[in-house]
Design a protein that fits this description.
Blueprint lengths: L1 H6 L7 H23 L1 H8 L18 H17 L3 H51 L2 H5 L3 H43 L1 H21 L3 H24 L1 H6 L3 H27 L1 H26 L5 H42 L20 E10 L4 E11 L3 E6 L5 H8 L7 E6 L2 E2 L5 H6 L1 E4 L10 H5 L8 H10 L3 H4 L19 H15 L3 E5 L7 H15 L3 E5 L11 E6 L2 E6 L1 H7 L2 H12 L1
Helix pairs in contact: 2-5, 2-7, 3-5, 3-13, 5-7, 7-8, 7-9, 7-13, 8-12, 9-11, 9-13, 12-13, 17-19, 19-20
Length: 608
């Protein structure tokens, strides 16, 4: 229940629906009880048991409410009987129908109002989960499967929604039905009701034994669902590799193993859950059977209970069975929902280590320089940067080169504050970037990565991510700067053309030029290019390089390069090895030194 207390805050905006639902449930329970009680006068009329009462009874207080109600009904029936038995029967039938009609009207209204509450909570939890997913740092998801996160946003939230309905039934509707029914039973026979209550705790204990391990089994089902969704997501993302290596059997086996585990866990969970209803019904019928014996003694032997009242009492006793079954099912639903809520709240309650400081300023411009001072950083145990320091003056281009694993891309991750440094500091205009809001910091930067990350949408909407208020003319101008307009203008729908999942309708060079156009449209003062040409063929590289040179004019740029031919005109080239600077200077200076940079250039020239 602890998790549901946290989930309940999402219900606050919809509390009016909760109030209306509770009100409807109160009337549902009331009329549900009265519907059974209303059968009593009809039975008396049918069996000719109605006592002739010609004088209206007097009210003597709540302690004699049963006697008063019975006497008044007898008086009313006596009055009607004087006009003929048909009128009495019609009235009694109308009374019973009216009670059941009102019971079902309020049952519908209760479900009608709860629908808005449930779906509202579902919407708000999903929205907050998605917002949190975007807000959390990259490090949070580096260890988690994407499919598991998808499962939490989809199926786990749905499980909470169903449990939310169950918990309202658990605490309002069905307990009220039981309460009103017991009140009616006490009015009919205190002795018989005490006898019933001897057996109810025993039944409750036996039912609770069935559901004890339900949360554990439910958690296994939800985790496994997250796993096979991850397999599906990875399969769709890597179909070329799977087919190219004839690895279909490997992935089929992995998926089949997961669904087999899901099958086993689901069977255990559902069979245990399905045991709830028959168990509660059997125990209920056992209580009814004992009642028939004990109540029969009171009617036939002791003659202390009216036969008509006994039949109504049995109906009321059976009337407890349905809400009791619903409560047992709802309590299992809550256990399942508790497991889902735990998984959802794990994300919602995670505190991002990259949160803005309380006094962080919103920086709107870039004036002098970017400085990395004695920066050390590690992703896990080993440092990938050690005591790293460089200064990037405004308007200059600094290139970072070196072998794979030397820490080049880490610099881009730290400057954009996807991660925070372990030691040292990164400053922009002499202000530590941790004292600047993340939104304003990244607003000053344009990022072009090695992998062209595009979305299944039109070219226009992909570029509008850079500047959502840009006009079509500005989009076309950005495409021209990025050397992309030459192919976009020939597409069937121009900038409105959908480029498919991850932009897969386009070539690698075309995708990269769109990524550059997106950065151009943003028009930031600082550009970070993370191996933007390394995955391209020679012709595409020439076009993209030309686009990059156009884009970098009058901007401050940090270029992470694999192909050294693309950075020869940089103001400063920084050569890195194992997270440290080994050489620094212009292209000609470094070549003249005949050191690490010259070796890299020679190796690449030889490879080509």
């Amino acid at each position: 229940m602890n998790y549901f207390k946290q989930i309940l805050r999402f219900a606050k905006p919809y509390r009016i629906y909760a109030i209306l639902n509770i009100t409807s449930n109160i009337f549902y329970a009331l009329f549900g009880t009265l519907a059974m009680v209303s059968l009593f006068p009809m039975l008396n009329v049918l069996f000719g048991q109605t006592e002739k009462v010609k004088i209206a009874p007097k009210w003597n207080g709540l302690l004699e409410v049963r006697e008063y109600s019975e006497a008044y009904l007898n008086y009313y029936v006596t009055q009607k009987a004087a006009q003929g038995n048909d009128d009495v029967l019609i009235f009694m039938v109308a009374l019973v129908i009216g009670m059941f009609f009102l019971k079902n009207i309020f049952s519908y209204l209760a479900m009608y109002f709860i629908t808005f509450l449930r779906n509202g909570v579902l919407k708000d939890i999903r929205n907050e989960l998605y917002k949190k997913t975007i807000d959390l740092p990259l490090s949070f998801f580096s260890e988690k499967r994407k499919g598991d996160t998808i499962a939490r946003i989809s199926t786990d939230v749905l499980e909470i929604q169903h449990s939310f309905l169950s918990i309202l039934e658990l605490i309002v509707r069905e307990p009220l039905m039981i309460l009103f029914t017991i009140c009616a039973m006490v009015l009919i026979s205190v002795k018989l009701t005490i006898f019933v209550f001897i057996f109810i705790p025993v039944s409750g204990f036996l039912i609770s034994l069935v559901g004890k391990k339900l949360k554990k089994h439910s958690d296994k089902v939800q985790k496994e669902q997250g796993f096979f969704l991850s397999v599906v997501e990875e399969t769709l993302g890597g179909l070329k590799v799977i087919k190219g290596f004839n690895a279909e059997k490997i992935f089929n086996r992995k998926f089949n193993n997961s669904t087999s585990r899901f099958y086993t866990y689901s069977n255990t969970l559902l069979n245990r859950q399905n045991l709830a209803s028959p168990t509660s019904e059997f125990l209920g019928i056992t209580v009814i059977a004992i009642l028939l014996w004990y109540g029969g003694q009171m009617v036939l032997v002791e003659k202390s209970l009216d036969p008509g009242l006994f039949i109504v009492y049995m109906g009321l006793a059976y009337n407890i069975l349905t809400p009791a079954k619903a409560i047992s099912k709802a309590s299992y639903g809550v256990k399942r929902g508790n497991a889902a809520a735990e998984r959802v709240l794990e994300i919602l309650n995670t505190t991002s280590p990259l949160q803005d400081r309380p006094n962080a300023e919103a920086k709107k411009d870039f004036n002098s320089q970017i400085t990395l001072e004695n920066v050390s950083f590690k992703y896990e145990d080993e440092y990938v940067l050690n005591n790293f320091s460089i200064t990037v003056p405004k308007g200059s281009t600094v290139a970072l080169v070196g072998q794979s694993g030397s820490g080049k891309s880490t610099i881009a991750n730290l400057v954009t504050r996807f991660y925070d440094v372990n030691q040292g500091s990164i400053k922009i205009d002499d202000i530590d970037i941790r004292d600047v809001t993340k939104t304003s910091l990244r607003g000053l930067m344009g990022l072009v990565t090695q992998d062209s990350i595009l979305f299944n949408d039109s070219i226009k909407n992909n570029l509008l991510i850079g500047n959502e208020n840009a006009s079509d003319e500005e989009i076309i101008e950005a495409l021209k700067v990025a050397n992309a307009w030459e192919f976009v203008k020939d597409l069937p729908n121009g900038i409105e053309t959908n480029i498919g999942d991850s932009g897969n309708k386009l070539s690698g060079g075309q995708k990269q030029r769109l990524s550059i156009a997106r950065a151009v449209l943003k028009n930031p003062p600082i550009m970070i290019l993370d191996e933007a040409t390394s995955a391209l063929d020679t012709e595409s590289e020439r076009l993209v390089q030309s686009a990059l040179e156009n884009m970098m004019k009058n901007r401050t740029s940090i270029v992470i390069a694999h192909r050294l031919s693309t950075i020869q005109n940089s103001d400063v080239i920084v050569v890195m090895q194992k997270g440290q600077i080994v050489e620094k200077g212009r292209h000609d200076e470094l070549m003249a030194r005949n050191g690490a940079y010259q070796k890299l250039v020679t190796l690449q020239s030889f490879d080509q």
